[in-house]
Amino acid sequence: MSTTTSNSISSTPFDLTRTLAGQRVPAIGLGCMGMSEFYGQIDDAESLATLHAAHALGLRHFDTADTYDAGHNEELLGRFLAQLSPAQRAELCIASKFGIQRPPGTYERHIDNSPAYIRSACEASLKRLGLEQIGLYYVHRRDPRQPIDQVMQTLGELKAEGKIGAIGLSEVSLDTLQRAHAVHPVAALQSEYSLWERGAEAQMLPATAALGIAFVAYSPLGRALLSAALPATQDLAANDFRRQLPRFNGAAGEQNRLLAASLAELAREWGVAQASQLALAWVLHKQPHALVIPGTRRQSHLRSNWAAGGLRLSPAQLQTLDDLFRPGAVAGERYTEGGWVGIESARA
Which residues have a catalytic role annotated? Predict the structure, then answer.
């Protein structure tokens, strides 16, 4: 079997689109978190160039959050947006999130979903982004002290006031999603999903499809492990948070790198330029209502990710990937204990 693809990258949008917050956008967006922290040294000039390159390619969905380097990521995205015309900005779906408070430079977090905090966080994000409305505004993590109906009521008020365009939830349970959606329509659910992490297939992917809610897959490349080009964990930058993640270390890390090597071998056999493209194409073929937001600071990786939208996988190829990365094949938990704070979705 073979997959035909091209190494050339078109500057015009491909036809693989999804509905997100009332807009039709390409199924491949850009996660901006790594432009500000967690993955080693940052470079604002390089990141701004990549943002403009993304726009030129046809990406229209940009994802950020207020907690990414204490607002730096929103400010960076705001600098990019300020360089676009009003008509260009109107074509974009800008997504941001609230709910995680972290001391600067740490992974420690406190979750706040109180009405007063939601409003103050939204105003601060609008200012940093330089926007009058955030297209899609997520509850980044759930604070169990705050009833979800109250959270949705506050977000509904912000929508009625024109400060946000649509409401999203991230890493919540099925019960929370259903109760929230009964109060006010939820436009998108964002959770980790990839060959590397398939937990959402049990409940959340079927539920979002049934409810007409877009599913936004973050870390669709397994935090770059599925790219097959990641240095050994000990060679990562000292401030790279993957050094602490169970799936990158010890016996689990060794097992998972063998899986990544097998994916790379399949990419070579099928004539796909990069293993990462195969991983993205799998998500988009597997879940017709899913969007992916791979993150990168580099234009070469950006163009490679974008090209994944042109791959067409056969049912047999999809099954081969399903079998290789069957649930349970990946070893170790996806977060440290501290990283699970505010996450309601199942740990296994």
Answer: 68
